[in-house]
Amino acid sequence: MNVKYDFLIVGAGMYGAVFAHEMNKSGKTCLIIDKRSHVAGNIHTEKVEDILVHQYGAHIFHTSNKEVWNYVNQFAEFNRYINSPIANYYGEIYNLPFNMNTFNKMWGVATPDEAKLRIQQQCKDNYVENPQNLQEQAINLVGPDIYEKLIRGYTEKQWGRSCTEIPAFIIRRLPVRFTYDNNYFKDPYQGIPIGGYTAMIERMIEGIEVKLNTDYLLEKEQWDSMADKVIYTGPIDAYFDNRFGVLEYRSLRFETEVLDTANYQGNAVVNYTDRETPYTRIIEHKHFEFGTQPKTVISREYSEEWKRGDEPYYPINDEKNNILYEKYKALAEAESNVIFGGRLGEYKYYDMDKVVEVALQKVKAVLG
Ligand code: FAD
Fold first, then answer.
1. CA torsion 239→241→242→248, rounded to 10°?
2. pLDDT tens-place string over residues 52-75
3. Do residue 335 and residue 241 come from a single domain?
4. Which residue in 88, 223, 282, 333 has the fewest CB atoms around it within 10 Å?
5. Considering its fold, how many domains does the chain have in total?
6. Whose CA is nearest to atom 33 of ligand 1?
């Protein structure tokens, strides 16, 4: 067998790119393949009307890990974008996350004490012992006003079923903030890479051979023979021919449109929290980078049931799927020449910063 590369990296997403960059830096030879026509995986950004469009959903980089922040800043300068989504409930606009601006708009209260009193009163008046579903749980935590206007419709669209049919344990707490702070994330570091995520990933993998439009699983043996070790960031169940069954996901559908207006909604992220509007949110991409282009690009985001062949977005880590995953994981551990990593390889929702963290840990472990 003519071994050519130290590592074959399946998947040019964040995990694969960090792994490849580090190994290349350590003098190892790497080949990256991806079945898509572009690098960057789900964080791919593409220019439309000179606006960077997040093709697989809005991505905001945020982290509390200074090392990770310094790491990604090697490959891109980040802008000062702060995620401050708003909610549109039948045309009424509220700030998110739930904070003093939200409470002021909802009830006219101006001080934290007034807001706390209002929430306590609402919770007390509607309290249900042993909540049996998400509706009862949410009302216990924040009261019926916030639940009705800001939680119910959005959650039902996300889950595709009524809040009374969703188990209570799904929400243990609902963070409320008694300050006028609309910054969604608590992390000290946040922003969007100037020039887009794809350019950032391209910088990470500079000098490394990449083959796109290449599905590893179609010619697995041939690819395996080309490297000492394989880093596989595709779906773990597909790797094993789905022999125990298919791991489930929640999917999304995006309807992206160019509009002949400079500013459609005045914010990057607007959640539609009523039940009637069929989409969960609209992303206006230019606001991620304070764009001043004459046109705008918006994406309506629909939450959908996933079926085989659809894009897998969010793993459904319920008991049934977790048990199934454990079976695949046991097989994966027996594959001595393959490392399974990333959101699909580990069947786990990871924010980008966590992906960087775990990929760097894996590199350390492999290099010893
Ligand atoms: P991916 O990006 O999925 O990369 C895997 C790659 O493997 C893909 O390019 C795929 O084409 C390739 N591949 C799969 N199978 C094969 C095969 N057989 N052959 C060849 N190639 C293959 N994180 C944040 O930090 N902030 C956010 O705001 C945020 N927003 C998100 C919004 C949505 C809608 C979703 C779903 C996730 C969001 N995330 C966010 C998480 C973020 O997308 C992930 O952390 C990141 O994309 C994971 O990178 P990855 O390399 O593990 O996976």
1. 50
2. 999 999 999 999 999 999 999 999
3. yes
4. 333
5. 2
6. 57
Query: Which residues span the domain enclosing 363?
Result: 5-81+188-247+315-367
Instruction: State pLDDT tens for residues 100-126.
Output: 999 999 999 999 999 999 999 999 999
Dist CA 95 CA 6 (whole Å): 50
Q: How many helices (H) and strands (E) does the chain have?
A: 13, 16
Q: Which amino acid is at 187?
A: D
Look at ligand 1, atom 40, and give the residue with the nearest C-alpha: 351
Q: Is residue 258 part of a domain?
A: no
**Claim to verify: residue 73 and residue 90 sit in the same structural domain:** no
- Closest-CA residue, ligand 1 atom 23, reads 351
The verdict on the CB of residue 252 being under 6 Å from ligand 1 is yes
Say how many Å lie between the CA of residue 104 and the centre of ligand 1: 38
Q: Is 16 in the pocket of ligand 1 (CB under 6 A)?
A: yes
Residues acting as catalytic residues: 173, 177, 250, 281, 301, 349, 351
Q: Is the CB of 189 under 6 A from ligand 1?
A: no
Task: Give yes or no: residues 206 and 61 share one domain.
Answer: yes
Summarised one tens digit per residue, pLDDT across range 300-355 is 999 998 988 889 999 998 899 999 999 999 999 999 999 999 999 999 999 999 99
69 in the same domain as 204: yes
Per-residue three-class SS string for 85-119: CEEEECCEEEECCCCHHHHHHHHCCCCHHHHHHHH
Overall pTM > 0.70: yes
Q: Indicate if 13 and 77 belong to the same structural domain.
A: yes
Residue 166 beta carbon below 6 angstroms from any ligand 1 atom? no
